[in-house]
Amino acid sequence: xxxxxxxxxxxxxxxxxxxxxxxxxxxxxxxxxxxxxxxxxxxxxxxxxxxxxxxxxxxxxxxxxxxxxxxxxxxxxxxxxxxxxxxxxxxxxxxxxxxxxxxxxxxxxxxxxxxxxxxxxxxxxxxxxxxxxxxxxxxxxxxxxxxxxxxxxxxxxxxxxxxxxxxxxxxxxxxxxxxxxxxxxxxxxxxxxxxxxxxxxxxxxxxxxxxxxxxxxxx
Length: 219
What we know:
By secondary structure, the chain is an alpha+beta fold. It has helices spanning 98-109, 154-167, 187-195, 205-208, and strands spanning 2-13, 17-29, 35-38, 48-50, 55-58, 62-66, 72-85, 119-125, 132-137, 143-152, 176-185, 198-202, 217-218.
């Protein structure tokens, strides 16, 4: 991982346009090529970012990041305050708590509760940024990536979006879509999921351990 603290401005051009005026920020470049720009606040979410795969071209006073979708992130650097590199090694991935692990087990046994006719291809399907909880095949032939949470928040939608980006590089998995499954899903997460084309399924955990499929609600 490379961490650069610099005074910079940032412009994004793609699905829309966005501009960050000059300020001191953290630029993070991960080993897989993801580039993100952070302020000293705002919790975990970057101000702007570009997921891999992409191409980073460094010039003396600017970085230009482009991806196959022809999106472009331009970082104009006025002053570099720090530039460090770290080898973090192989990450073991997120360990789910007991409820999430049990939900995964239950839904893997009965994927039709998520969507009629769905079958599981593999649990913990590997990607280079972590495993997808369930990789399924829908009745219509679509590949479906399922992310399972105890509580569905916006970060769960973002996580599934990253998985879909990575899986989308494999043409054998097309057409591809995603499902976020959780015992409860926050309204903001539902809005973001809808904007990303991701379906949301709320699961009654206590009922699911012995309940029929009517206890699942699809939004």
